[in-house]
Amino acid sequence: VPTIAECATQLFERAEAGGRRALQAMAVLATPATSGALAVLGCTNPARDLDAAAATGLVARTDDGGGVMHPLVRELVAASIPLEVRRALHDLALAWHTAHGGSVEERAEHGSSGSDGFAALLLLERAGALALRRGDVEQAARWFRRALERAREELALSGDDTFEAGVLTFSRKLAGVLVVGDRLREAEGLVAEAEGQLAPRSVERTRLALVRARIAARQGRRDAIGLFEEVLGSDLARHDASLSLDVARDLADARL
Fold it and tell me: Which residues contact 3 (CB under 8 A, 6 or more apart)?
């Protein structure tokens, strides 16, 4: 008896070319698709292609004439798309969401899988910051983790120093969020890895020292006060009033 995945794959492969294009576009778009969206994502005859996709049984039609795909089917179809083609489709999906006032999260979802590494990191950072403002630690960790993975990928491909800085920045941001979520061992690992790549007296090392101090405070360690005092006495804290205030609050809490 074939599995659901095997059945879905067979139905996809039997679809006519236009139907397959529509299915791939819908898998990347990841939202209910209209003919207009499919046209932006490369369907030459979107209404007909959407009909062909629906004829496979892999797409349910919506009241507005669009179509929606089950998440499992979407995952299977997306996995079948060659990487460069998938990235090009995500670029088009990003453009469509941008033109139609899509949320930062929607744009980050596509930007993170698109071809522009710099744009991906900017959007992922914004999405993570918004999640933090809402108090959604898990979502913030998800966005920052994706940013760290993309920065590592781009650094390996290009060797560009900008992406090396991105690896360090998102290691710190992710570690900071993990501390809030009490995932201290993972946060310590990220901090230690990042510190190994930095000069002894760099600004980024001071920012990482603050994360390390917060880890110590969460663990109830006696050295937390000394670690906070070191950060508070740094050049960075003396020139950054906002950071200085945050560290002073952390230090006061550690002394309680």
Answer: none
In this predicted model, which residue has the larger pLDDT, 2 or 33?
33
Neighbours of 40 (CB within 10 A): 18
Q: Give a three-class secondary structure readout of the chain.
A: CCCHHHHHHHHHHHCCHHHHHHHHHHHHHCCCECHHHHHHCCCCCHHHHHHHHHHCCCEEECCCCCEEECHHHHHHHHHCCCHHHHHHHHHHHHHHHHHCCCCHHHHHHHHCCCCCHHHHHHHHHHHHHHHHHCCCHHHHHHHHHHHHHHHHHHHHHHCCHHHHHHHHHHHHHHHHHHHHCCCHHHHHHHHHHHHCCCCCCCHHHHHHHHHHHHHHHHCCCCCHHHHHHHHHCCHHHHHCHHHHHHHHHHHHHHHC
Cβ pair 139, 133 in contact under 8 A: no
Within 10 A of 118 (CB to CB), how many other CB atoms are there? 13
CA–CA distance, 105 with 142 (Å, rounded to integer): 11
Q: What is the pLDDT of residues 150-195, one digit of tens each?
A: 999 999 999 898 999 999 999 999 999 999 999 999 999 999 999 9
pLDDT tens, 17-62?
Answer: 999 999 999 999 887 888 888 999 989 899 999 999 999 999 988 8
DSSP bridge pairs for 61: 67
Q: What is the pLDDT of residue 109?
A: 94
CA distance 160 to 67: 41
